[in-house]
Amino acid sequence: MLALLLLTAWLRPCAAQSNELVMATTFSPSATVWIIDRWQKEPGSVMIRTLNRTSASLEQLLDTANAENVDLILTSSPMLLQHLQEHQKLAPFSGAPAVSQHLVPESIRSTSVAVAISGFGLLMNRSALMTRHLPAPADWDDLTDPRYQGALLMSSPSRSDTNHLMVESLLQQKGWIKGWETLLTTAGNLVTISSRSFGVADKIKSGLGVAGPVIDNYANLLLYDPHLAFSYFPQSAVSPTYVAVLKNSQHASEARRFIRYLLSPEGQTILADANTGKYPVTPLAPGKSTGGAAGDADESTAIKLSIDPQTSAFGSADV
């Protein structure tokens, strides 16, 4: 009985206050705190409270009647948004710029907006590599090297939609047989499997492993540490950050105002800030930050980001 009560409490979000937005998100608290802090400095803005959970947990929560307390969803998972749209949980959104919406799958384009983009690559602990006398890996193929046995980290594709997308991208690029061969051989080198994608970055920072595949914004937030380095996969898929308004939101107008703020020049600059670790979907004014890892770094150390509009893939880049 006690377990049932605890589960019910976990599934039920606290009742929203009349002057706040509740935003459900698959991102870690550190990935959203800077955006929210800057938004709340805007005149007339309302407070935002976040529910940070996995895609599966949010899917379960938002399928219940308790979803009426949630106003927004912020995620990199198109699968989660597809599920919510199919169950008529999302409200229509219009007026997003075309440069943003061409990054959104057509099936969810009427409700979901792309406000930032990320890519996939390898986060490495330079000190741990040096201690183990290992070279820095550059691509998936390098991770199959038996010298990395017991030294790599990865999140579970069944728990992390970010990792799910990375795995799908690999399979599309290499083909089913070769792709699975690469994944299974890499799996033999893992020291552990993290349940969340940001857990991989945290464990690499702590030295539990030497390297692992991660989304760039989690890596970028850690690159102030000189012992850490990040490099994109040579052909990394683009991973947009999506935002959508829940159909039963009690504060739909404020929720839409927040989305428009994220799409504004100021919002795009904040999303490209070192404290957020992402890239904007619209061009920034000269002199503005151009990438999450750039921060206060000079141009020579900033991430150089290029997107092929035909393949939606990042060009090769290093930090």
Automatic annotation (TrEMBL):
Organism superkingdom: Bacteria
Record's keyword terms, sorted: Signal
First and last residue of the signal peptide: 1-18
Gene Ontology CC annotations of this record: outer membrane-bounded periplasmic space
Name of the protein: Phosphoglycerate transport regulatory protein PgtC
Organism encoding this protein: Klebsiella pneumoniae
GN (gene name): pgtC_2
